[in-house]
Amino acid sequence: MNLFTDLLLLIVVARILGHLMTRLRQPALIGELIAGIILGPSMLNHVHMTEQLAGIAGLAIFFIVLSAGMEMSFGDVIGAARGYGLLIAAFSFLMPLVAGFIIGLASGLPPTTTMVLALCISITALPVAVRILEGFNMLNSRIARYAIASSVVNDLAALLLLGLLFNVPRQAGFSAVIMASLVSAGKLLGFIAIIIAMEYLLRALSRGKKTTLRFSEKFATWFGAEALFGLVILFVLSFAAISESLGFHSVIGAFLGALLISREMFVAARYKQLEQTLNSVSRGFLAPIFFATLGLEFSIQGMPSPWFVGIVLAASIIFKILAGWVGGRMAGLGRPEALGLGFILNGRGVMELVVAKIALESAFIDLPLFSTLLLVGMVTTLITPILFRLVINRIPKQDSANTASQPKNPPQKGGGPGQNNPTQPVPSPA
Length: 430
Known about the structure:
Blueprint: H1 3-23, H2 28-39, H3 51-70, H4 74-80, H5 83-106, H6 111-122, H7 126-135, H8 142-165, H9 174-206, H10 211-223, H11 227-245, H12 250-259, H13 268-297, H14 306-330, H15 335-345, H16 349-361, H17 367-391
């Protein structure tokens, strides 16, 4: 088949199955992944991964990471690193990370492959957590505060460690991994220093006469309101290019660059328009294609032994829930709240799939392990809202003040697009 026929099939089937999943109160990305599995070599064998589809999937990764970065800010990261939020984030990241290392080493996997496995089962996807909590009207609860803080830290830590991994030789021994990691860490710290300096500069410009706001308005007046979207893309692309020049993957720079974009740079109407345009391009078009192409690369025939798959899946679920439980109890949450926090943190979704895809393209992992990680992402995302419903009626719904650890663009309450109550479908976390 040609490119446009493949795209037509992928988009139509992915959107239909994604909508069906939302009607079943599940994330749309599950349906989009299943669409690729059905159309791909694992089942109907109608659509195959090509260089053109891979290029579109690469563009989709950029926009997905851009969307994830714009859902938080440096204030979110700093807020997440305070008090019990950091404690829970550390538990929820390190416990699955250690479990992944043990599984990888016990299975005889190379160090770099083991690192990818550990990273993928340590991630908590911020979009999944936010949208599931939104669906239960719990964005102002203590669970939401700690879950969002953990997601912010987990996603950032995973991407930074992925950046370090990109400078490690393939199939290297542990001594070579350590030396390469030290060199890479130095470059990464320098890059982060540039990002922090830019953050302080933008903050300084935003004070007083609102320089950045006036600039964005003048830019919109000169070139048209739609040009602001292009300006944001160019801004983030510049950091993606710096990231690539330092030897890291472009998504590291794209994510960090997106953190710099704040609501204060635009008037409310402009920022809302920017969000709508980004959502239309990302969630409306590119994200369904990306998740469907992941399904195309899923190989049932090439899966590792059922024992390995079962151990990875069980460790991913058990240690993430256990970490949330332990951290939640140490933070003073009641038993139902701590268990609910563990259930929310178990949702991996978008970010795990992005990391797995990048690792596959970079030859850090092979197709059997990629298929295993894809299965882990699907199952954990699928069961998260199901498990959370088991404890929802026992969780006190007291409100708490907004904190810096919440997303910088929190969903507005009311009847706007995409706003849900507990009886409505959970929207797509893509």
